[in-house]
Structure formats: structure tokens, C-alpha cells
Specification:
Distance between the termini: 20 Å
CATH superfamily of the largest domain: AhpD-like
Shape: globular
Number of helices: 6
Structural class: mainly alpha
Radius of gyration: 14 Å
Strand content: under 5%
Order of helices and strands: HHHHHH
Number of strands: 0
Length: 114
Amino acid sequence: MSNQNSLPKPPSAYSDFVARFPKLGQGWDLLAEAGKEGPLDERTARLVKLAIAIGAQKEGAVHASVRKALAIGITLEELEQVVALSAGTLGLPTAVAAHTWVKETQAGRRSHGD
């Protein structure tokens, strides 16, 4: 597993929310920790989480998954393959939307230096 310090900082909206509701933040942290238990390595887990976010059509979760994946060295091409794989199950419009979210996040990371 990579060092948590290598991951990008969460958006300020998240930080503001958990500062206001610390018990919800603690609960979220516990859920995240529990999900890490098991045989999947961090790269695989990140790609699975991206696929779940795409399937659930959670734009914010796709953006977060992409930021975290890029931070641990997953390539844009690998992320795009996850998007392409989603098309057969979720349909082309969903895959196109997800591709847009991935590209937006990748472009924002490059221009803002996240």
C-alpha cells in the first residue's frame, strides 16, 4: 500500500463538512479502512472503486477516484480502459459521461498541479 500522504488532499467542501460533522468523518474513515481489508492490492482496489463510481454515475466519486489513481501512478490509459469496459454493461452514454469526467479531472490536475 502507498503512503496516505501521497494522495491528494480532499476538496475543501469535504474538509468543511467533516469539520462541521466530525462523527460522520470518523465513520467515513472507518468504512474506508474496512474496505482495504482483503487480498486486492491498492492499484486494483483503486480501479475497482473507479468502476463502481462510474456504474453509480457519481461524478464526484469519479473525480476523486481519478485524482487518487493518478497520484499512485495509475496511467490515464488504464483509467480510460475502465471507462471503455463500462460501456458494454452501462451503455455508451454513461461511458461517454464518465470519459468526460476522467478527462476533466486529468486536465485539471495537470493545470493546477494537484
